[in-house]
Every structure is written in C-alpha cells, then in structure tokens.
Specification:
Layout lengths: L2 E6 L6 H10 L6 E6 L3 E4 L12 E7 L7 E3 L8 E9 L14 H12 L5 H8 L5 E9 L2 E6 L8 E4 L3 E5 L2 H6 L6 E2 L4 E5 L4 E5 L13 H19 L5 E5 L4 H12 L3 E9 L5 H11 L2 E7 L1 H15 L4 H19 L4 E3 L4 H5 L4 H5 L4 H29 L3 E3 L5 H8 L17 H9 L4 H4 L6 H4 L2 H11 L4 H12 L4
Helix pairs in contact: 2-3, 5-13, 5-14, 6-14, 8-9, 8-17, 8-18, 9-12, 17-18
C-alpha cells in the first residue's frame, strides 16, 4: 500500500499535491484514503477528488475495500491520530485489545497513541520504532505534525523531497516528481522525521549493530544457522498454511522451501525464465526433489519487453542490472498475486550474509578482516542496493515480501562467523560454505547444496534478452534501458 505525506511551508495549501501524489501511485489500487488538518476522505476516484484547503495531509492507496485507513478515535480532534503503513509488522504488539485481532496499522497506532499521552508525536514515534519487527515504512499525522519512519534495513521504499512550497514523502519517486520535486532522495532507514510546516527534524533511532566474530567450526555454525531459521518460522510464521516462494532452484531459495515445508506449510514455487534459458531444467529438477508444486513462467522476447516496462515503472531507475534482476522477480510476484497469495517468501540476503558474490574472492586476497568489512558494508547498504527494488515490485503487485535470512537474529549470527566459513580463498568458486552445510544438515540433496552461484539475471536469461532487445534497436543495453525509462516516464 503506497503511502504519501505532504506539509506546506509557511501555511501553503497542499490539498492538490496530496491528490496528485496518490494519483501517481494509483496503479492496481482501488481505494484511496486521505486525511488533512480539516477532513478525512475515502474515494475510489482520486483524480476527481476535491479537498478543502489544507496545510498538512497524508494518504494511501489500497487494493481492497476491506483495508481501512486507521484513525485513533478521540473526543478531541487535535488528538486524532491518522496512520498509513506500507509493509508488515511481524510482532503485533498493542497496549490494548490484546485478545482481538489487530491490523498492523492499528497495532502501530495503538502504541503511538499510548505514548502520545505523555509526550509529543516525534518522541512517541521514536519510542515505538525500536519495538517493531518487520518490513515497513509509515506516515502518521497528529497534533498538526507529520512524522515518518522506516525500518532499520529499508525493506520498503520511502523517498522525500522539498522546495520552497512544501516538504513531501512518498513510497514512490513518481509521486514526488508529479508535484514538481526533482531533488528526490531515499529516506534513510532507521530514521524518524517530523515536520509541522515551520520546522523539520530528522534523527536516527535504529542502526544495525555489528557483532564481534567468534571462533566456530563449520558443523557448529551450520547447526546454529538451521536452529535460527527454524526459530523464525516458529515465532513469526506459525499458522500460515500456504506460501508462495520465489524460486531459482539454487541453495538459498531451496533452503527456505525446505524449512517452510518442515513448518507444515504447503509451498508453491514460482520460477521465471526466458525462452531458451539453460537453467530451466535446474528449476524443474530442484522443485521435483523438494516435492513442492512449481509454477514456471517461460517468457517470450516480446513478453520480456512488456515486463521490462513494468519493472522500470516499479523500480523507477534506468539501471540495467536492477531491471535485469527485477524483471523475473516482477513476473514471479505477479503470478503469485494472480494466484491469490498475499505474501511471497524469498532467499534474498543470503549472498550478502554468507559471501555468495564472486567479487568476494578478489577481496579475500587482502585478508579475512577486509572481507568481513566488505560483507558488513554490503549488508548495511542492502536496502538501497536491493531491498527497495524488490519492495517496490512487491508493492505494485499487492504482495508482502518475507525474507527469513534478514531476520536480525540470523544477521547477527551470520556476521559473527569467521570469514573462512564463507569464502576460503581467491580460488573458491563455491563460497557460502556454512549455508551449504546447513542445507546438507536439513537433508537437501548435494546437487542443490553445492550448486554454483549464478545471478538471477543470468540464470533466468533476462540479461541476455535485454541485450537482444537493445541490439534490435541498434542501442547498447544501457542506452536501451534509458530509452525505455524515458518512454515509461514521459509524462513526468
């Protein structure tokens, strides 16, 4: 559910801006909620919405009429709390109505509302943010102030920008482009911003804490990793009967599939490949070994061109690698959404945590300490490099993206492991040894456990297809993707 917030500087009217921002993010959204300092509106026709003059506003688009904008009821209008959340909260912590099923938005609003009894909105949000586990960003309006916050990794995309008229926040850059903002930046993960039209305050609340490296053997490390992953499914995913899983046939996604099946879930695997891709057989063989249902989409070159446009629209970047990776992810998430799944699991994050990338072989030449530093830097930057891309694609397709490897307990364990359990040296073509040993511990066959790492844009054939399309237009791949980006966003 894309979210937006805008505050006018010096009392400027922002009623038109909030409508235009939501309209720019209206793809696949059937209902829109808007709250201003003067009114609360729900509409199916955002383009025709006429609001009274407003100095401050938040809103969101949703895909179902069952999803409602949350307003904390209050006898005093000044104490009303309006909250719009993108993503999901894994721990539904609420100080009231503990025995009732509460939506994520209600749970977060309950916590903030309770804290606001003794402090302002900014401090209330700063107090609540460390309590929440999940993948989320949210905007909240109360007492004439807007606050925005984002999880520590930056799973869900959130951007901001300002000019002489206003300061605005949105889940998608196109919403800010639509109202004329050009200097748009990623809102930093783990931070809280509060704006009231006169002042702006941004502060860091959460940071990833790097653990010290401990001396562990391969068998012990693999056992601890399996225990940590099993614990996540018992704690956070208990009660989920059926699940969709983005599937490449490799060790990362196969390990998630295996643990999901152990937890009693019925797993449907979603794989995507371009016609002629050599790794189709790998996907089919791995799925057969796991005993899971497989939905494999084979894309023609013409379909690749269509999905390229959709992927560019979602990720909002003219980056060949990002759209090459994002294209099969988009097609798989779309298929899962069409089949009725509201959440999709994946093995994202394993390569960063366990040394999967080929370039780590070059880095380890400078020593294990240097490799540990580089892996940590990649984990910290993962939000902007990979996660917000996949979060944007999930948002467009109305699904939540669950990433078991990026639970903080798994991250802490992975970062405490010696470097030689991940990459043994410059000649190590396999890498990720502790993860592969964990796969063997779980009973995965050796051909899966020791399958060489191959990036999804190559294994799926999306990179080669983009290159073919570029040659057909007489362009280099970067020129072709830039051309398609300008075509998709010509109205902006």
């Amino acid at each position: 559910m894309p979210v937006a917030a805008v505050v006018g500087k010096g009392g400027n009217d922002v009623s038109r801006q909030i409508v235009d921002m939501l309209d720019a993010m209206s793809y696949n959204k059937r209902l829109f909620n808007v709250a201003t300092d003067d009114e609360v509106v729900t509409t199916e026709d955002i383009r025709s919405l006429g609001l009274t003059e407003a100095k401050i506003a938040i809103g969101r688009g949703v895909s179902s009429k069952d999803e409602r904008f949350f307003a904390e009821p209050s006898e005093d209008q000044d104490d009303e709390l309006f909250l719009a959340l993108e993503g999901y909260i894994l721990n539904h912590v609420s100080p009231q109505n503990r025995d009732e099923a509460r939506s994520d938005s209600e749970s977060v609003a309950d916590l903030i509302g309770e804290e606001m009894k003794a402090r302002g909105l900014s401090e209330a949000v700063r107090t609540v943010l460390p309590v929440l586990r999940g993948a989320f960003s949210f905007t909240v309006m109360g007492r004439g102030t807007i606050a925005v916050a984002r999880d520590v990794f930056g799973f869900e995309p959130l951007y901001w920008g300002e000019d002489e008229r206003c300061i605005a926040f949105a889940s998608e850059r196109k919403a800010l482009w639509r109202i004329g903002l050009r200097d748009v930046a990623c809102f930093p993960p783990g931070c809280v911003a509060t704006v009231d039209g006169r002042t702006k305050d941004v502060s860091r609340v959460l940071s990833l804490a790097r653990p010290r490296v401990v001396d562990l053997g391969l068998d012990d490390a693999a056992r601890r990793l399996v225990e940590a992953l099993r614990g996540i499914f018992l704690r956070d995913f208990r009660g989920i009967g059926e699940v969709a899983l983005l599937f490449s046939g490799g060790v990362d996604s196969s390990l998630v599939a295996k643990i999901s099946c152990e937890a009693g879930m019925k797993v449907t695997l979603y794989g995507v490949a371009v016609e002629g891709a050599r790794d189709v057989g790998v996907i089919e063989r791995s799925a057969s070994e796991l005993g899971c249902g497989l939905r494999l989409r084979i894309l023609s070159l013409e379909e690749v061109e269509d999905y390229l446009c959709r992927t560019i629209y979602a990720v909002e970047e003219a980056n060949v690698m990002k759209v090459g990776v994002g294209l099969p992810v988009y097609a798989a998430m779309e298929a899962a959404s069409v089949d009725g799944f509201g959440c999709v699991f994946s093995g994202q994050g394993a390569d960063e945590l366990f040394g999967g990338y080929s370039r780590y072989r070059r880095i380890v030449r400078d020593g294990c300490e240097r490799l540990c530093d580089e892996i940590w830097n990649d984990v910290v930057r993962m939000g902007e490099v990979n996660l917000q891309r996949d979060g944007a694609i999930a948002m467009v397709n109305n699904v939540d993206h669950y990433l078991p490897f990026l639970d903080l307990k798994v991250v802490d364990l992975a970062m405490s492991l010696p470097a030689d359990l991940k990459v043994k040296g410059p000649g190590d073509t396999m890498r990720k040894h502790v993860l592969r040993e964990a796969a063997k511990t779980l009973g995965l066959p050796e051909f899966i456990a020791y399958m060489p790492k191959k990036a999804i844009q190559y294994s799926s054939g999306s990179d080669m297809a983009i290159r073919k399309l570029a040659r057909r237009e007489g362009k280099r791949p970067s020129e072709y993707v830039r051309h398609m980006f300008e075509k998709v966003f010509s109205e902006y």
